TrEMBL record:
Top-level taxon: Bacteria
Keywords carried by this UniProt record: Membrane, Transmembrane, Transmembrane helix
Transmembrane segments: 39-57, 77-96
Name of the featured protein: Uncharacterized protein
Length: 97
């Protein structure tokens, strides 16, 4: 179950980081984050990146097998879903705000 989650997080993180890099260099004359909508997009995407990095850490943790039980996986899966939803909300906010 770990491999598809790691792969999908890597792909989504790559797209988000590319989006943020293009967004940050879009306007060379001034600040990129100026309005409340810009702040909402930036905070949402940064929170999504943070959660996704935490999920990757939890998935790639090579601790003893008894520590990797169903409860830990359930929490990791909830964080995974939260990170992906936040990422899509952030990109959607960037498109429509």
């Amino acid at each position: 179950m770990r491999q598809p989650m790691v792969t999908s997080l890597g792909i989504i993180l790559g797209f988000i980081l590319n989006f943020l890099a293009n967004w940050a260099t879009e306007d060379e004359a001034g600040e990129t984050v100026m309005t409340a909508a810009d702040h909402a997009v930036a905070l949402t995407l940064l929170a999504a990146i943070g959660i996704m990095c935490l999920v990757l850490f939890r998935l790639l943790d090579m601790g003893p097998p008894e520590e990797r039980d169903n409860a830990r996986y359930a929490v990791t899966f909830k964080l995974y879903c939260t990170g992906i939803v936040l990422a899509f909300v952030g990109v959607g906010a960037a498109l429509f705000l």
